[in-house]
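YM 10:42: Arginine--tRNA ligase sequence, as discussed on the call
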Amino acid sequence: MILEALLHDRLAPAFAAVAGMPVDPAVRVSPHADFQSGAALALAGSLHRPPREIAAEVAAAVDLAGIAEVTVSGPGFLNLTVADGWIAGALDAIAGDPRLGVPPVPVPKRIVIDYSSPNLAKEMHVGHLRSTIVGDSLARLLDWQGHDVHRVNHIGDWGTPFGMLLEHLAETPGGTGHSLAGLTAFYRAARVRFDTDEDFRTRARLRVVALQNGDGPTRELWRRLVAQSEKAFLAVYDRLGVTLGPEHFAGESTYQDELAGIVAELAEKGLLIESDGALCAFPAGFTGRDGAPLPLIVRKADGGFGYAATDLAALRHRVSDLGADELLYVVGSPQRIHFRMVFAVARAAGWLPGEVSAEHIGFGSILGADGKMLKTRAGDTVRLSGLLDEADARATDPALGIAAIKYADLSGDRRGDYVFDWDRMLASTGNTGPYLQFAYARIGSIARKADGAPGPIRITEPAERALALALLGFEPALTAAAGPREPHRIATYLYDLASAFSRFYERCRVIDAEPGTRSSRLALCELTARTLHTGMFLLGVEALDQI
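YM 10:58: structure's back
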């Protein structure tokens, strides 16, 4: 059981008895003790009594025997100092648990999480990094908690641009080449022809019609582009160590046969209005800068379908066919309004029932040293494969470079921007991925050198106690991360744990300690290593036995 929750459950009846009503003890970690409750101060006004008097009465009534010592401090705080014996016993129990004392969720949900989502026939770039890394960490965390997680990689593989690409491919056999670089050059060549050659532009538009109508040769060309692109995406995912595979691809093409029905059903339910030839939904509460209602374009004036139609079809499929209880969309923050509008229209249409939640997991941008969007010196978008190549070149081990990139992305609140700084990211000290990897490897070295096996834990030194309390914080850290979908809370916890271990190792002899102390400290080392390993796995950061 989470220590804060245990203290809460013991304090709550004591507060209720004193106040004559239910009271949240509001137990928090404190620099003045292990934990602290300030609930007595909040009760002073309603009870018309001094808060210290209330706190003293609660302290006398609460049953914390064998768990913690309680004292009254300041204007009426309850300071809670956990008993060393209770800490040691709790850690011994965790040491024997494969899940480190974290039980699976009592009621698992089917969660569909949409992340990465690159576009066909284009090389993945730095703009895809955050969706891929943040999404994968959340998928790992929710999976580990026991939820039924369904990963979806909603790739852009349909629409007007493919007429241009397919016509160029039809006229230049083998144009896709055998590498991602070849595919990128192919795309650029097709774009140049489309922008400068009117006849080619006409043929490209006709090719779109052929694709949509199921023309055999055109579909075969399209499948070649799909296969080449997916192969390239999977190569990047493999280098990044993310859990997306070929079975998770679900392109926009998946839903094309449903779009006409989507429009028809929305129209039948009175949710579409014609605006300048387009069919639009106008969900309540969304307005533009001029104050006018903001449209969600479902079918364009030329008869084509917009992103909204595909997103609505995908949402309906995920709820009705996949049986989702929760929908998560890990997409950049600029798309916040779009998704809110899609969710609103889906609820109005009955495709997103009240018991199913839909959430846009937004994130900020990756910035260069100048504070602007990260670009190459030539001003081009940074290729993701090029970024990974540079990580390999800069790090002494490729795993260190990948860890540096992923941890830098996950260690801050996803909603904010961050500056891409190689020197800071690759540092072996400070809050970095390599720092965690070095900490884990150091513990492995201790275990290999030590004579003896881990034994029962006993707390005799302040540094041992600090490390032990840090280890007990694993479950609340995961809970805090999962609820608001904030992986940085796991990263912060792991850094604090690694720092606590470093202080422990500096102040407490392990290998040459007397046998009883050595076995206890080896147990602390082993439990720290397991906790770091599990937490790093949830972030997608590789734990290295040796560096």
